[in-house]
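FORM 7B: Structural annotation worksheet

SECTION A. Query
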Amino acid sequence: MRDNNAQPTRIILHRLQALSSDRLLNAVALTAFVTQTLHMIEHSVQMYQHLVLGLPPKLANGLLFFLDLEWNHFIFNTLYLVFLAIILVRMKLWVLVSFHKEVIIPNIFIIGFTTQSYHLIEHTYRMYEFLTTGCTPCTGILGKFFNMVHFHFFLNIVAYLPMLLLIIKSGIFKQLFHPRDDNQVKETLWEDTLKSPAPLLASILLYGTYTGYRVDIYLLGITIFTAVGLSAFLSIFEGGLYRNILDALTISLLTAMCINMSYVSALAIVLVSLFSARVLSGQGELRLNYIAFSFTLILILSSPSLAASRWGTYNLYTFFTLLLVLGLSRAAFTKTIDIVLAFIFSWIVLFIPFQLSQLASPLTDMLLTIPSSALKLFTNPLLSLIAFFIIPLPYTFPTNRWRIAYPVACATLSFSLSHVVPVDIAAFAGITLSNIAYIITSRGR
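SECTION B. Predicted structure
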């Protein structure tokens, strides 16, 4: 007897396979998935603000509260519906809708598409209210009768689950994780984690917060949200999602720890860092230290000496102890302890005599001051962050006979620049210039 369910099942499997073979469909599906995942994070934060923090619906504005709330959600929902429409038309899923359990994916997708269509109607009406009355947030059509936070969270869940099911069933989710570039070094998740500064930076920041270091939680959340979101979008085309997320977290945490900035400056750091990492990277060769490059650029464009304003509001000794211990641990794991010590020693040799020479003190007093000055400089948080987490950034330093010369050059250039620019700019610029100089000279040979 012929199985009546076999034919639609085969058709569905064939169209799911098209998600991998059809480049446009593949890119649209992954983009829709990433877009709505980020949108769900935003609505989850709103739920947390409303249910846990007790904020009323009008004040539970999510992470991107500093953007115009109505425009923000209208654009997200419009883009998501466009992506769903492209998938629906290109896969012709409406043809397969039936009551057979084997064709559950088309059924659920149609429900999600219909829900998202109404969701956009809600936000279109909210945009009308916003443009005519200036309300932020606006209630919409059914928002007058239901709790807005709960209602829109429910609409987003119903519209998100079909996309999630489609991505999982098609098997294209794994494409986000596998690097597309053959020149990219293939490493295990464990190796990537050990080499990335992100896990230890997170530990340091958590402990620093516990001991009194003040962190703007919203600023940190916005920075992480933006950095991870951009990394996810980049991974659609280049893969390597896990490594990209680690890079994004590194940038976000360093931004929060090094520089006191506005939301615009924080997002500028993220944008410049993530994209300079791609624009300035070499094919299989030494990569430019994009964190030092981006921090230098942002510091130059914004007001100087921002980094110095971040320190001094916490228990110095416990925080510094953790910073040094974890920094040494990472340097040992990544086998970069020689680079770190060469940088710190060069910094001490250059800066301390110069600082002491500015004092009108006898030579004997100056000699006695050197050990305490060296210890003070060694426990400077900015220097420690640069030495342990920025100088030995993976694939940005030489591995040949120039391995020690590179950190020495970084410290020397930083010392020279500190005579004309603030020391925080000089510290990052020294790394950038040394890295650029080595890349140019090595390629010229």
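SECTION C. Observations
DSSP finds 17 helices and no strands in the chain. The mean pLDDT is 79.

SECTION D. Sign-off
Analyst initials: ____
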